[in-house]
């Protein structure tokens, strides 16, 4: 048996060490193995491994062992294979052990390194013990750290003055650095992008002997930054003095990106909820305001000035209602209904919305062809995409007091747009509208312009990198094309080419003459809506009965189902909502016409109302005359006249 004095380190590490020759005879048995198996070195010397552990006498294991002897392979058996060299504990259970078998060249022995992972300790703790032993055994260093060299996390060992002593393979994989880059390298060179307090943390590890954990930005060899979880711990000598530090860093860029996406998603969800709640209450107030001004207008017909002022109030209230609709559109997600709509009208309305997002120091100019273009797509998605590009243009202009953003809409011009037609041959076929968003901001560098549509790519300190990625997704889903031209210092132009549909002539709406007096059940929990709506409907000749929630509405309806011509109900109410009440009423009168009114986003409830025939969903605040026309139309249809 080889004497342990030839390998003084073997009795000073926490792993069990044994070695066998080609015949399976045990030639080395360290003190850890003596402790675990309660067998002395003398007792085990020359014993046959396969007789002591018969389960190893199989072709698979012997093939692995032959690979070690014949090809200098390294065989690794993870902790799950706890029966390689079974070692019972006091309770009868076996230790969970990781067994590594490698060739001890100078003696032609298979060296078994057995790591006890029953109470697995952190890698850094194990390394402290190993590093303390390595101070006088530097020639054995590479062998002892072979295990951590295979770790997925990057591991760096540095001296007290910051000089790099060792890095494992994962470090090169993470950073892209080469061995030659690390010649005489220091921690300061590796952590050039670290936060201001990083050096303080590092000094405290040395001076106080405490570990530190946190996140840091790490720079790769090409300058690319990634976020890493960094742990720093001291390596102390026998006197307790820190001579080195071990740094473990794990690339958590994907986790950070997912966390950010989740944060933004939660923020968006909270925004939708907040906007929806505010919109509901505000729309109810506007409905009451419009109703009251409508009634007041009827009472002051002989007072032209007052009538004019009241009509202006109505107009302002309607404009406020449009702003609320725009806010709901901005916050809405998941509404992907493709419809045909005129682009010119859309761009005009979008310009009004965009003006609210552009500071007064920047001019937002609109220029569009008077021709009409019909586009089939999701107006909400297109609007959100244009808003993202306008916001980018605003940020590009920065504090420029002469900032200018131009929004234009024109048909594709083969002469002016030939460069784009050559670049995108699909533009040769069919009709396209050309939307441009041009700014005179700082522009985009050539190296960045190819990346701007990549998810999570951003040059802003607090940017998400999702704005233009969302734009690209929208454009592709509409089979459209987007292109960017930019000159640093002069500005950027985004070009959108949208495929057009042949416009169909609009069928004029023929007003329905009010030739009936309907009996209406009006349901709403807000008296600001209920009272003026009742009064204005009565002014139009209808008979109106009120209910303040779904339960009261059902009670009134069930008392005489045949008397009602139509039900107008709010969607969201205490005790019982409008949809539930409508279903109960339909059980008694399946054909009763029902108008649902909502102050929330229509897209949140439209699917529920579509499932019911003879219904209409309207948004608050509503136009009194249009409501009257709809009542007459639905009642006449139900009567068959």
What is this structure, in a nutshell?
The protein has 22 helices and 22 strands. The protein has about 650 residues and is an alpha+beta fold.
* Protein structure class: alpha+beta
Question: Strand tally, please?
Answer: 22
Distance between the first and last residues' Cα: 111 Å
- The low-confidence runs, each spanning 5 or more residues with pLDDT under 50, are 503-512
Count of spatially separate domains: 4
Calculate Rg over CA atoms: 39 Å
CATH class designation of the largest domain? Alpha Beta
The biggest sheet amounts to:
5 strands, antiparallel
Report on the structure:
27% of the residues are buried. By secondary structure, the chain is of the alpha+beta class. A 5-stranded antiparallel beta sheet has the order 2-1-5-4-3. Strands 7-6-10-9-8 form a 5-stranded antiparallel beta sheet, sandwiched between helices. A 5-stranded mixed beta sheet has the order 12-14-15-17-16, covered by helices on one side. The protein is 39% helix and 22% strand. It has 22 helices and 22 strands. It folds into 4 domains: 4-120, 2-Layer Sandwich (Beta-Lactamase), CATH 3.30.450.20; 139-251, Beta-Lactamase (2-Layer Sandwich); 335-506, 2-Layer Sandwich (Heat Shock Protein 90); 519-639, Rossmann fold (3-Layer(aba) Sandwich).
């Amino acid at each position: 048996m080889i004497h342990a004095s030839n390998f003084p380190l073997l009795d000073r590490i926490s792993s069990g060490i044994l070695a066998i020759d080609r015949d399976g005879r045990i030639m080395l048995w360290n003190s850890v193995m003596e402790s675990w198996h309660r067998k002395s070195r003398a007792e085990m010397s020359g014993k046959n491994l396969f007789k002591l552990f018969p389960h190893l006498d199989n072709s698979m294991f012997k093939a692995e062992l032959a690979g070690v002897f014949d090809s200098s392979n390294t065989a690794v058996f993870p902790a799950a294979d706890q029966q390689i060299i079974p070692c019972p504990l006091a309770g009868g259970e076996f230790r969970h052990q990781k067994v590594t078998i490698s060739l001890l060249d100078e003696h032609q022995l298979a060296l078994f390194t057995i790591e006890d992972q029953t109470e697995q300790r952190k890698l850094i703790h194990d390394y402290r013990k190993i590093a303390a032993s390595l101070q006088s055994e530097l020639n054995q260093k590479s062998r002892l750290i072979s295990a951590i060299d295979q770790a997925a996390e990057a591991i760096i060992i540095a001296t007290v003055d910051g000089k790099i002593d060792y890095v494992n393979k994962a470090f090169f994989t993470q950073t892209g650095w080469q061995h030659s880059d690390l010649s005489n390298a220091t921690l300061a060179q590796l952590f050039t992008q670290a936060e201001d307090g990083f050096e303080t943390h590092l000094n405290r590890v040395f001076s106080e002997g405490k570990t530190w954990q946190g996140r840091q930005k790490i720079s790769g060899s090409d300058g690319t930054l990634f976020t890493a979880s960094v742990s720093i711990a001291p390596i102390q000598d026998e006197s307790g003095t820190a001579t080195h530090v071990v740094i473990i860093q794990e690339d958590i860029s994907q986790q950070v990106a997912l966390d950010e996406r989740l944060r933004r998603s939660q923020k968006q969800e909270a925004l939708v909820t907040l906007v929806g709640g505010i919109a509901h209450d505000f729309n109810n107030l506007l409905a009451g305001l419009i109703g009251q001004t409508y009634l007041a207008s009827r009472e002051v017909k002989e007072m032209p000035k007052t009538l004019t002022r009241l009509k202006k109030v109505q107009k302002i209230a309607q404009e406020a209602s449009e702003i609320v609709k725009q806010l709901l559109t901005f916050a809405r997600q998941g509404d992907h209904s493709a419809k045909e709509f005129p682009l010119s009208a859309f761009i005009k309305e979008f310009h009004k919305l965009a003006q609210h997002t552009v500071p007064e120091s920047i001019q937002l100019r609109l220029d569009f062809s008077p021709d009409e273009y019909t586009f089939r797509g999701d107006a909400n998605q297109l609007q959100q995409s244009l808003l993202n590009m306008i916001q980018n243009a605003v940020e590009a202009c920065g504090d420029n007091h002469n900032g200018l953003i131009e929004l234009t809409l024109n048909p594709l011009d083969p002469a002016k747009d030939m460069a784009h037609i050559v670049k995108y041959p699909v533009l040769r076929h069919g009709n396209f509208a050309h939307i441009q968003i041009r700014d005179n901001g700082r522009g985009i560098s050539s190296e960045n312009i190819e990346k701007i549509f990549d998810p999570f790519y951003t040059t802003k300190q607090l940017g998400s990198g999702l704005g233009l990625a969302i734009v690209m997704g929208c454009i592709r889903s509409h089979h459209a094309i987007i292109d960017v031209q930019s000159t640093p210092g002069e500005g950027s132009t985004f070009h959108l080419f949208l495929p057009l549909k042949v416009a169909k002539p609009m069928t004029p709406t023929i007003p329905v003459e009010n030739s009936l007096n309907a009996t209406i059940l009006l349901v709403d929990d807000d008296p600001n809506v209920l009272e003026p709506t009742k009064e204005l409907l009565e002014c139009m000749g209808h008979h109106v009965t009120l209910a303040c929630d779904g339960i009261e509405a059902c009670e009134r309806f069930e008392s005489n189902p045949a008397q009602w011509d139509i039900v107008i109900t709010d969607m969201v109410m205490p005790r019982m909502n409008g949809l539930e009440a409508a279903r109960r009423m339909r059980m008694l009168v399946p054909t009763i016409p029902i108008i649902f009114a909502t102050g929330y986003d229509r897209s949140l409830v439209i699917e529920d109302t579509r499932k019911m025939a003879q219904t209409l969903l309207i948004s608050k605040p509503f136009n009194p005359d249009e409501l009257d026309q709809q009542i007459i139309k639905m009642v006449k249809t139900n009567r068959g006249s």
